[in-house]
Amino acid sequence: MRTTTAWHADPEGLRPASLERRELRPDDIAVRVDYCGLCHSDLQTLHDHDGHSPLVPGHEFTGVVIEVGPEVTAFSVGDNVAVGNIVDSCGQCPMCRAGQENFCHSFPTLTYGGRDRVDGTTTLGGFSREYVVREDFAYRLPVGLDPAAAAPLMCAGITAWEPLRALEVGPGARVAVVGLGGLGHLAVKFAVALGATTTVISRTQDKAEDAHRLGAHGFIVSTDPAQMADARENFDLVIDTISAPHDLTEYLKVVGLDGTHSVLGYLGAVTVEVTDLLIGRKKLSSAGSGGRPATAEMLQFCADNGVVPEVEVLPSAQVDRALDRLERNDVRYRFVLDMSDLDGAV
Ligand SMILES: [Zn+2]
Ligand SMILES: [Zn+2]
């Protein structure tokens, strides 16, 4: 086994301890994890954790290849790479063959809390100094992308990217992004860079300045009925990034003819009046994570168009503080942990 150091969840919180990674299989690479983003699902998983089963969160990270297995062809030692929230899939089912490994019929292997397809062990995540991954699920980090800022692209980024691409958003499209957090600010940057007329919908006026700074052309306060009424049927695509349960009725009203409301932030049950979809032939959709082709495409798009997440980088020793702040939405717009302080931490 290979020994590294990681932030393990226990009943008192996260603490640094050593971690055994598998020896490299023929198609594995070992990655020195330099930066790992903090995702809402990390927070949720820690809340739900029993405190005892092994848990190392973290599923959007960048780093450097430090060793390759004998059959690895895509990477060499020293390459800058990025890894997201899935690390394997069956490779055979229709979804995998369509390049949508994120929807694999036998479920993709998650970067942490998943079940390794070879040895059945529980996967442990990127809040660690080293990760071992199949080369097919690592991505070359294009030149020009800052490794710290790029980390959140691998979960928040690809989740916002796939629905925009699937609906062929481009010049002339009218996109609204509901909620300006980790996911939402990237949806805005992507939509703007793709050429769409982009509007942010937020509960208060507070983030109006930020929205414009991120490139948004319009800003609507959702709690102002007059502003929402003015925006009636105004958008081809509404990307909904609100992470708490919420009523979709008012948002469906701003979706235009044959337009789509894509719910990305909240994955529980919602109630919809079908007539709210009927009027205007509107579609209700969702998306999450991404397949290998789209992930590589997104990274290249970001490098080509200068799209990078807005991040606050903290030493990984401040992970508990960062989680507290994330819980209070006190971050603009994504925390990234610098893992270098794990060297010699145990
Ligand atoms: Zn995530
Ligand atoms: Zn599959």
Give a topology summary.
Layout: E1 2-10, E2 13-21, E3 28-37, H1 40-48, E4 61-68, E5 80-83, E6 86-88, H2 94-97, E7 109-110, E8 130-134, E9 139-140, H3 147-150, H4 156-166, E10 174-178, H5 182-193, E11 197-202, H6 208-213, E12 218-221, H7 225-230, E13 235-240, H8 249-252, E14 255-263, H9 274-278, E15 283-286, H10 292-305, E16 311-315, H11 319-327, E17 334-338
Written account of the structure:
By secondary structure, this protein is an alpha/beta fold. The protein folds into two domains: 2-155 and 290-297 and 308-342, Medium-chain alcohol dehydrogenases, catalytic domain (Quinone Oxidoreductase, Chain A, domain 1), CATH 3.90.180; 157-286, 3-Layer(aba) Sandwich (Rossmann fold). 24% of the residues lie in helices and 28% in strands. It has eleven helices and 17 strands. It has helices at residues 40-48, 94-97, 147-150, 156-166, 182-193, 208-213, 225-230, 249-252, 274-278, 292-305, 319-327; strands spanning 2-10, 13-21, 28-37, 61-68, 80-83, 86-88, 109-110, 130-134, 139-140, 174-178, 197-202, 218-221, 235-240, 255-263, 283-286, 311-315, 334-338. Strands 3, 4, 5, 8, 9, 16 and 17 form a seven-stranded mixed β-sheet that branches. Strands 12-11-10-13-14-15 form a six-stranded parallel β-sheet. Helix 11 (319-327) links the parallel strand 16 (311-315) and strand 17. The radius of gyration is 20 Å and the shape is globular. The mean pLDDT is 97. The chain binds zinc ion (ZN) (2 copies). One zinc ion (ZN) binds next to loops. Residues 89-90, 92-93, 95-96, 104-106 line the site of one zinc ion.
